[in-house]
From TrEMBL:
InterPro entries for this protein: EamA_dom, EmrE-like
Keyword Transmembrane helix: yes
Record GO cellular component, one term: membrane
Keyword terms: Membrane, Transmembrane, Transmembrane helix
One Pfam family matching this protein: EamA
PANTHER family hit by this protein: ACYL-MALONYL CONDENSING ENZYME-RELATED, EAMA DOMAIN-CONTAINING PROTEIN
Protein's name in the database: EamA family transporter
Entry superkingdom: Bacteria
Source species: Thalassospira lucentensis
Length: 300
């Protein structure tokens, strides 16, 4: 391997690692959300995206960069960014409102597997059997964590909710893969996408929900969400999907429900059952299998 190839491989590994940080941050979503249970979903997501946008704009200004230059991006990048961020959350909440949470969440969580499969359409990527095998293992582990080992009951009367969950999975997987097309768009542009998602969230909230004034603890949780799972996570994911190994990121994404469950156990909001342990081992195994090529290269 030439020095240039080694440098490119190292850069790709770094971007994959940065993208994986998003998975860790998303794990805090459930923990923070338990503290804001009375806040309507679209009000919550709009507030969180507002926090993310404000802090990212401040960061851009403090670093001496031009906000206007950051926001001057192609229309396609704006449609993809805002549509991906808001569209995923919109259809996720629609799914939860029209179908049982377990089944809807599991359908929505097909997106990591879809990312791996859709990556075959990218001209610079090669899909191998171990990428698919790792993603399938991760899906199996996530299924155990979400269902807690109990069976699934997909009933026809919840078809609309299931359909919304499928759209949710398709939107996020398509956004993640198509994001590679806009590799030249700086990560800082996500601040604008968060602003657009916040505006659409507020519009949906005012049309479908009643405003609930958050208390001090809820504001703390909202700020935490806006800085982490609904903030920095999207910046890390943007960089990772543009420059990293998209197949590994897809398989590693099943670590989010695992880390989330671990956090809930640590804070006494869940129990460490044999099902959780088996599901966790499957997710870890899936990530290792999907990362086979990277692991072997590092050994060499």
């Amino acid at each position: 391997m030439s020095l240039r190839q080694q440098a490119l491989a190292a850069q790709k590994s770094k971007a994959t690692f940065v993208g994986s940080i998003a998975v860790v941050l998303w794990a805090f979503l459930a923990l923070f959300t338990t503290e804001v249970g009375t806040i309507p979903p679209f009000q919550l997501i709009s507030l969180c995206f507002t926090v993310a946008a404000v802090f990212s704009f401040v960061s851009i200004i403090v670093r001496g960069k031009s906000v206007l230059r950051v926001l001057s991006q192609p229309l396609g990048a704006w449609l993809l960014g805002v549509g991906g961020l808001f569209g995923y959350h919109f259809f996720y909440f629609v799914a939860l409102a029209n179908a049982p949470a377990v089944e809807a969440s599991l359908i929505a969580y097909l997106w990591p597997l879809l990312i791996v499969l859709f990556s075959a359409l990218l001209p610079t990527e090669t899909l191998h059997w171990y990428h698919v095998a790792g993603a399938v293992l991760g899906l199996g582990g996530a299924t155990l964590l979400v269902t807690k080992g109990h069976g699934l009951a997909f009933e026809p009367e919840y078809g609309f909710g299931y359909g919304a969950a499928i759209v949710c999975a398709l939107i996020w997987s398509a956004y993640s893969v198509l994001n590679r097309r806009y590799g030249a768009v700086p990560v800082e542009a996500v601040c604008g996408f968060c602003s657009g998602a916040a505006a659409l969230g507020f519009a949906t909230h005012w049309g479908a929900e009643n405003w609930v004034s958050p208390d001090a603890l809820q504001w703390f949780a909202i700020i935490g969400l806006g800085l982490g799972p609904v903030g920095a996570a999207f910046f890390a994911w943007d960089y990772g999907t543009k420059h990293g190994n998209i197949q590994i990121l897809g398989a590693v994404s099943y670590g989010a429900p695992l880390f989330s469950t671990v956090l809930l156990i640590v804070f006494g909001k869940a129990e460490a059952t044999p099902t959780v342990i088996v599901g966790g081992l499957m997710i870890v195994a899936g990530a290792l299998v999907a990362s086979r090529e990277m692991v072997l290269r590092s050994r060499r």
